[in-house]
């Protein structure tokens, strides 16, 4: 994020309102911090914004994990298709998830949280169903792979006989 450099004369309006112009408010708050005017800080909204920064990274992790899982589902359930774009998407999502975790180690926590994993899996099932026209009920209710497998560069799930039977029954 670019450094906000605002002087009091540059502020669009003094005492910018958080719920009015977020950019003007952020510039003003940064100016107050840099100039030591701590008594003028909007502490409640600053705290909210700081929490939101963490939340955005958390949401990004969940979104990337859902996309990764969706492509692993498609890889496993549509073995006859498997375009190069699926493999590239799997690689990119794994790389980007690992980069996020390396940069922010606290993002490892959701990877051990069954509820979080199930939420990401639910989105992956729904999206895989939309993209494959395979009913979501054909896919397992919970993620059949460990997070270690999901993030392992060498892991590409193969169709099992059970999957082939389910697909045949679904037709």
Looking at this protein, list some descriptive labels.
171 residues; mainly alpha; 6 helices; 60% helix; 0% strand; elongated
**pLDDT averaged over residues:** 89
Helix content: 55-70%
**Largest sheet, described in full?**
none
Count of discrete alpha- or pi-helical segments spanning 4 or more residues: 6
Distance between the termini: 50 Å
Q: What general outline do the C-alpha atoms trace? A: elongated
Order of helices and strands: HHHHHH
Beta-strand residue percentage:
under 5%
Question: What's this entry about, in short?
Answer:
With 171 residues, the chain is mostly helical.
What does this 3D model show about the protein?
There is one protein chain. The protein is mainly alpha-helical. Helix content is 60%, strand content 0%. It contains six helices and no strands. The chain has helices at residues 22-34, 43-77, 84-103, 114-132, 147-151, 161-170. Helix 2 runs antiparallel to helix 3.
Topology, element by element:
Elements: H1 22-34, H2 43-77, H3 84-103, H4 114-132, H5 147-151, H6 161-170
Helix pairs in contact: 2-3, 2-4
